[in-house]
């Protein structure tokens, strides 16, 4: 069986609709036919300051949302990155194969570092994409299902795999980004030309999986729409309406053109009311299941520890091969 791998940072109290539609929904579909590896990249989270108790809480909350959204821990390998030391170990080797200039060109690093000021940005943030390459390459996956914003990182992992293979002999599978066009970028409801992101300046543009339905309804009803009245998909001319249509389409299974026909002659308000209802209906059981899982954190921790043991069985042989090829002496 072919393999997929992916992860989402535990850096917010809840996943948002971009994470859900851009990634989680595809993971759940793909785990049916692929051997799936899903993890929570807590090592990545500390590239920016985190409150320790909050990080632990968010790691569990993220795991609970994976499962509540449909990740099956019996079928997929589900774990927390810091419990599998091979990630950090392979990252070091890959750090030593990455050019300083190459790492400097990563657009997410440039964005985040310029927001923080280059002096306060950490070396960890700089080397973030290389740790991500290690996450991926350790498991030899064929595909990495992510949103559009992660494409460059998956491509870096492919470049590093190729470089390692060329220098030390065939070791890594070259992973491909699996990006679902229609949902690869969900936009901020208040600022529909920017992607929905937990680091947005205002929470009003986000739909969070774990928010109260009243909050979700209000946010969708207050979404920025465009001049004019026509409900039509036009990314450049009507970014607000187009974003709502894209969300509607992916959640309902109806195509955008079916929705355009259905809403012909109707007002933006109608679309928003129906979309709010659909989103709440879709997310309510996910939220309920996540809360149920979070009511027993010890059980969740046990499940994640079991997942980490499974992950180490997959990761250890790759790391051993890498170490041997690089010329490190065998430990035993
Ligand atoms: P993160 O935590 O920012 O996002 C998790 C997933 O959600 C997708 N996503 C979106 N998709 C559509 N529209 C949006 N507005 C939107 N916002 C986020 C992301 O593309 C991603 O798929 N670096 C990664 C985490 C990571 C990882 C990995 C991913 C670490 N190691 C190895 C894959 C493989 C990140 O910060 O994603």
Give an overview of the whole structure.
- With 332 residues, this protein is mainly alpha-helical.
- 54% of the residues lie in helices and 6% in strands.
- It contains 13 helices and five strands.
- The strands form two sheets. The chain has a three-stranded parallel sheet with strand order 1-2-3. A two-stranded parallel ribbon has the order 4-5.
- β4, α8 and β5 (176-178) form a beta-alpha-beta unit.
- α4 runs parallel beside α13 (297-326).
- The longest helix is centred in the last third of the chain and has 30 residues, at 297-326.
- The mean pLDDT is 96.
- Homodimer.
- A motif ('KMSKS' region) lies at residues 195-199.
- Keywords: Aminoacyl-tRNA synthetase, ATP-binding, Cytoplasm, Ligase, Nucleotide-binding, Protein biosynthesis.
- Its main location: cytoplasm.
Principal-axes shape call: globular
Which structural category do the helix and sheet elements fall into? mainly alpha
- Bound small molecules, deduplicated: tryptophanyl-5'AMP
What is the alpha-carbon Rg in Å?
21 Å
Short description:
The chain is mostly helical and 332 residues long. It is 54% helix and 6% strand.
């Amino acid at each position: 069986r072919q393999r997929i791998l992916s992860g989402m940072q535990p850096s917010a109290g809840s996943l948002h609709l971009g994470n859900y539609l851009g990634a989680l929904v595809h993971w759940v579909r793909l785990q049916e036919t692929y051997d799936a590896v899903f993890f929570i990249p807590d090592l990545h989270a500390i590239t920016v300051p985190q409150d320790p108790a909050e990080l632990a809480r968010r790691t569990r909350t993220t795991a609970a949302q994976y499962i509540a959204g449909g990740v099956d821990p019996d079928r997929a390998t589900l774990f927390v990155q810091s419990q599998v030391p091979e990630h950090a170990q392979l990252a070091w080797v890959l750090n030593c194969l990455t050019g300083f200039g190459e790492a400097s060109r990563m657009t997410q690093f440039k964005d985040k570092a310029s927001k923080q000021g280059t002096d306060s940005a950490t070396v960890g943030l700089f080397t973030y994409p290389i740790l991500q390459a290690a996450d991926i390459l350790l498991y030899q996956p064929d595909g990495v299902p992510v949103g559009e914003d992660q494409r460059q990182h998956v491509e870096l992992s492919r470049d590093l795999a190729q470089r390692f293979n060329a220098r030390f002999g065939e070791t890594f599978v070259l992973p491909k980004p699996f990006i679902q066009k229609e949902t690869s970028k969900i936009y901020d409801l208040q600022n529909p030309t920017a992607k929905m992101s937990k680091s947005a300046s205002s929470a009003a543009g986000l739909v969070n999986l774990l928010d109260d339905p009243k909050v979700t309804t209000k946010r969708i009803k207050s979404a920025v729409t465009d001049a004019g009245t026509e409900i039509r998909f036009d990314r450049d001319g009507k970014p607000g309406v187009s974003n709502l249509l894209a969300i509607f389409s992916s959640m309902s299974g109806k195509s955008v053109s079916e929705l355009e026909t259905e809403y012909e002659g109707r007002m933006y308000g109608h679309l928003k009311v129906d979309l709010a209802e659909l989103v709440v209906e879709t997310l309510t059981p996910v939220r309920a299941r996540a809360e149920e899982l979070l009511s027993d954190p010890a059980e969740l921790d046990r499940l994640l520890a079991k997942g980490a043991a499974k992950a180490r069985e997959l990761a250890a042989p790759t790391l051993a091969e890498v170490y041997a090829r690089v010329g490190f002496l065998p430990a035993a």
